[in-house]
């Protein structure tokens, strides 16, 4: 399957590049044809965007751990009040997908923004039934020792934020994680080493967050920055099966060097300490960071990663991106060594589906070490 995927990727990229060259050559030959075709295209695009606000979009993607994925997704950005012309658009999104390897994914999320950006309510619900693939716990692992772990995961979190000064927000939140029906291989290291969480469990956490957000767009930033710090405390007194704490830091910066070109940078770190179940460790990989790696293929108490992405407008609603990222995990901050970093790289296509709020569909192909790869389909940018 990987060889087939690689060949298909090469062919698709070749066809896409040749198509862009064809556009560039032909559009330069006849301005009248360009203007006429763009006018017709604009009319068509207006109808397509109106339709996008009503019906869900098909999902078609691929990853080595999930196989081929199909489903439906919906994303709407809108003002909560027509009288409030200052607040950023709120968001309601949802998706459901199924894979050839038995994965079921249901996601519902909303960002509600009130009173001229004074209050934010952010919430997410997820249900996943999926096989997960682990290289192991720690950074010094090999991809030859992949273990399959299946489970059902139900997650709900909600955060309340209030602006206290200019772009500074402070808030609190809660999170519920429920892992059930955890199944491992008979000779799994999780069983042999009696790793915390091998029998699943429900964790309940309360936390606080501090956010500085000067981005010009929450879903497709061209300029500005984001600095987010959060602390979550999981305590048995609150009904949590395990007692541990999580600290996260997410720093992003966006540059607009010319026209609509964007250079986006991100660095994150996660630090956990206490009695942490293996499924709540800091996870490397996924659709937003270290794209190409299975989410959680590498995991541990401490994680650091970063990425740089170039976003290139091509024509009208079309754009291209390319990125490179690096990261690693460790048992603790003290045990962290600045070597043996894992590398992620790739590129993607952007299709604008909401010009008013500058919302894109993104299709990314990510690659990692030793032939690891994945294709992602989602709304808005990865970060």
Topology:
Blueprint: H1 2-27, H2 31-52, E1 57-63, E2 67-78, E3 90-99, E4 104-114, E5 119-134, E6 136-137, E7 147-165, E8 168-183, H3 189-192, E9 201-213, E10 224-234, E11 244-255, E12 262-274, E13 282-284, E14 298-300, E15 302-315, E16 318-330, E17 342-354, E18 359-367, E19 373-379
Parallel strand pairs: 6-14
Antiparallel strand pairs: 1-2, 1-19, 2-3, 3-4, 4-5, 5-7, 7-8, 8-9, 9-10, 10-11, 11-12, 12-15, 13-14, 15-16, 16-17, 17-18, 18-19
Task: Quickly list its features.
383 residues, mainly beta, Porin, 3-stranded mixed β-sheet, 3 helices, 14% helix
3D structure, described in words:
- With about 375 residues, this protein is mainly β.
- The protein has a single domain, classed as membrane protein fhac: a member of the omp85/tpsb transporter family (Porin), CATH 2.40.160.
- Helix content is about 15%, strand content about 55%.
- The protein contains three helices and 19 strands.
- The protein has helices at about 1-25, 30-50, 190; strands spanning about 55-65, 65-80, 90-100, 105-115, 120-135, 135, 145-165, 170-185, 200-215, 225-235, 245-255, 260-275, 280-285, 300, 300-315, 320-330, 340-355, 360-365, 375-380.
- Strands 1-2-3-4-5-7-8-9-10-11-12-15-16-17-18-19 form a 16-stranded antiparallel β-barrel.
- The longest helix is centred in the first third of the chain and has 26 residues, at about 1-25.
- The two termini are about 30 Å apart.
